[in-house]
Write a structure and sequence with these properties.
0% strand, 432 residues, mainly alpha
Amino acid sequence: MHDLDALLSLGLALLLGLLIGFEREQSAPDDHEERRRTFVGGARTYPLVALAGALTMLLRPVVGVSLVVAGFLVLCAFLGISYWDEMRRRGDRGLTSEAAFMITYLLGALSSSPVFEPLERRAIVLAFVAVVVTVVLSVKPRLHALAERASKDDVFATLKFLIVAVVVLPLLPNEPFGPYGVLNPFKIGLMVVLIAGIDFVGYVAVRALGAGRGLGLTGIVGGLASSTAVTLSVSRRAKEDPSLRPSCTLAVVTASTVMVPRVLLEVSVVHRPLLSQLWIPLGAMTLGGAIAIGFLYKQSGDVAPKSQKLELSNPFELSSALKWGLIFTIVLFASRLAHELLGESGTYLAGLVAGASDVDAITLSMASLAKGGSVDPRVAVTTIMIGAAANTIVKGVMATVIGGWRYGRIVAAAFGGMMVSGAAGLAVVWLG
């Protein structure tokens, strides 16, 4: 290793140690006596441990890798003695700081190791690991709160789905079969994993934040999981307490606006080239929703109610995943069949019918068909927009029936603005 590379490696180790050390310093107890008894190391100790790891690795060509291993074992011995003494005196102690020390030493050693070359790539990889470690260390209260909110059923359902995603999915045959060759078991399974993963992000956000948050925030995090669930939940609240109508309307429109970037994410995973046309109408629809959100936010005034608990089921339930896979398969086959029998009009009809109940299924179906060349990209974009419009109309009807006419007409007006904006963007796609 050149002298400059060695110097840069030591500097990298120092920075990584400082990052973790500063976090540990901030996490130390405020009470002086408690801090004296439990504080293991902070902004000075962690950088020194990282430098020790880097120096032992730099000496490896001279004394061999045994020095790196010996340094790690010595560190573990010191940590073990400290942990044993603390347990003897208090009988209560976690292993977080000890684990952070060992990771810091290994990061320091890797900063001088040729495992990752060149140095720029090594810096990116190690910085990523250090940032992830720091984030995990700093979010301890929220992780504990999330663990308390999670039920045994949540954990068991998640494990079942992970078995499907990690074990079963790779075993599915990756070849088309059936009429028109549109049915591919692996791709269908992959779509199930994709949608359940996106739903899980929203589900975790709702579980982490919990009830007692503002309705606007409920619209944002709830929209990631299910904008329909948000519509049903807050519309009941608007019916029960008319003073909350503006805030409930804000939550519903926000959730439906969040649905639009979700569609873009799904298409980017399945068939990214389709985004070159799809982003125009969906971007216009998002802009229309953002304008409505701004107006409704002003109308909601100083009313800041607490949100009720959203009625969301764990998207990692195996039965739910299999049902969604069946829906996607039916929509995919029906869309291709309608296109073959009725042409473009049949595809649009499939989008209208499927989108009324599920935007995800028609979105992924059109992206898959466009990727295979079965459907023209502009037809796919139009069908996705029809599906999104149908779903928006259904939610508007739900809001009116459940929340009442005075509430529903405001939601309908906001949704109308979003659909007009999306139609204008779609016109640009066709005219372009």
